[in-house]
TrEMBL record:
It comes from [Clostridium] hylemonae DSM 15053. GO terms for biological process: 2-oxoglutarate metabolic process. This is Dihydrolipoyl dehydrogenase. Its main location: cytoplasm. One of its GO terms (molecular function) is flavin adenine dinucleotide binding. Disulfide bonds join C47-C52. Belongs to the class-I pyridine nucleotide-disulfide oxidoreductase family. The lineage of its organism: Bacteria, Bacillati, Bacillota, Clostridia, Lachnospirales.
Length: 463
């Protein structure tokens, strides 16, 4: 019997208009597929609207304040001056609106049909929205993630990262529950904008999966800037007092912290609203993420999942890569998603960026590793810019190939692209020695640190 609800048929259905979803839709359209994309919120998803981009806008303005303060201490500027947080927030919105409009335009000129509504999926090859059924040969689930919370008394008094980005004024005191990427970036921004910030993290140290020396450098720098970081500490409850909040905690230190705002930044979880995985036969992992194979295909043929909905790296650029891989396989180019070399960035002040493995991870895998370091304090461009930091490179002692790069300092996320290619190509010591890097530049430090692995750094005094 014909279903009168069927509206249109397409080659590909994409559910979710975040980075993974919209990029997959555009990539597929450029390959000649007819594509429909569903988004019930804002095109661009969390990243463009309430995540990566607006956070970086705040951090950029906060970094400018730090620069002015440093110059004031050197008597180059006479005073630090005042700033308008209202204008900062206005600028943040303008940047977001411009980027979202840009993605809208790209979808339009590539003939992707955009349906403004939340779609539901309960069977292969179709999605329902507004009482209408849209059919497609293939389907990509790119529904992203939502903020996760921990079950503590008084959790209702906390705000999410979305609300933290929309505050009308800088809080005098900010307590951040969770020392992950989101928590530390917002802690760093608001600290520079004038908040007294306390971060409470249940793990014994920040970012335990990353290079310990690089993270330790970052942690010391953040504490030096005045951020109170309490690791190995668990929040017991949040109380509302007459005119503020009080966060009670216990751990290596027991105590309480008063706050005007309490931010809950305890990670994110897959957003599978509208995705009836049981009815569709889609298998989930133990964490509740959609299970996919190396081709980003779920347990159901022709249904793919990418980005945060599929777990793995909760990174926009990972979602881009996964979406493009899914489209390649949909268009009969059977090729696994290559996520082995994934740059990881934390936009604190100082920033952190890494790619590849740490020395500890290499040792776990039975690789004899050697490390090299180079400090910002020995680099001409860093000195000219007043930047501080540390670059660490990990190499295979026997093969003399590059395994990982870890950077703490200004412009670390920009330099990591250069480092990613070195890790991907397994750049050898001989190739590092022959490489020519522009001078003066911060990128010179990566080559110097690589050479230092074998005592060959020219501008490092003694190893």
């Amino acid at each position: 019997m014909e279903d009168n609800r069927v509206k249109e048929e397409f080659d590909l259905i994409v559910v979710g208009g975040g980075p993974g979803g919209y990029s997959a839709a555009i990539t597929a359209a450029k390959k000649g597929l007819s594509v429909v994309l569903f988004e019930g919120g804002h095109i661009g998803g969390t990243c463009l609207n309430v995540g990566c981009i607006p956070t970086k806008y705040l951090l950029d303005k906060a970094a400018a304040m730090e620069k002015v303060r440093a110059l004031t201490k050197q008597n180059i500027f006479k005073e630090c001056g005042l700033f308008s947080f209202r204008k900062i927030q206005k600028g943040r919105k303008e940047v977001v609106d411009k980027l979202v409009a840009g993605v809208d335009h790209l979808l339009k000129v590539n003939n992707v049909k955009v349906v403004r509504g939340f779609a539901s999926v309960s069977a292969p090859g179709e999605a329902e929205c507004g009482g209408q059924v849209y059919k497609g040969r293939d389907l990509i689930i790119a529904t992203g993630s939502v903020s996760a919370s921990i079950p503590i008394q008084g959790a209702e008094y906390t705000i999410t990262s979305t609300e933290a980005l929309e505050l009308e004024k800088v809080p005098a005191r900010l307590v951040v529950i969770g020392g992950g990427v989101i928590g530390m970036e917002l802690a760093s921004a608001y600290s520079s904008l004038g908040s007294e910030v306390t971060v409470i993290e249940v793990l014994p140290e920040l970012f335990p999966a990353e290079d310990r020396q690089a993270v330790a450098y970052m942690t010391r720098s953040l504490k030096k800037r005045g951020i109170h970081i309490l690791c190995g500490t668990k929040v017991q409850k949040v109380e509302k007092t007459k005119d503020r909040f009080r966060v009670i905690y216990e751990g290596e230190e027991n105590g309480q912290a008063d706050a005007d705002v309490v931010l809950m930044a305890t990670g994110r979880k897959p957003n599978l609203n509208g995705i009836d995985t049981g009815a569709a036969g889609i298998a989930l992992t133990a964490k509740g993420e959609i299970q996919v194979d190396e081709y980003m295909e779920t347990s159901v043929p022709h249904i793919y999942a990418i980005g945060d909905a599929a777990g793995g790296y909760q990174l926009a650029h990972a979602a881009y890569a996964e979406g493009e891989a899914a489209v390649r396989n949909i268009t009969s180019r059977r090729e696994p998603a290559d996520l082995r070399v994934m740059p990881r960035c934390i936009y604190t002040m100082p920033a952190f960026a890494a790619v590849g493995m740490s020395a500890a991870k290499a040792e776990e895998e039975g690789i004899a590793a050697v490390t090299g370091e180079f400090a910002y304090s020995a680099n001409g461009m860093a000195l000219a810019e007043g930047a501080d930091g540390l670059v660490r490179v990990v190499m295979d002692r026997e093969r003399k190939t590059t395994l990982g790069v870890h950077i703490t300092g200004e412009n670390a996320p920009e330099m990591i692209a250069f480092a990613s290619e070195a890790v991907r190509n397994k750049t050898t010591l001989d190739e590092w020695e022959r490489m020519i890097v522009a001078h003066p530049s911060l990128s010179e430090m990566i080559r110097e640190a690589a050479l230092d692995c074998f005592g060959k750094s020219v501008h490092k005094a003694v190893k």
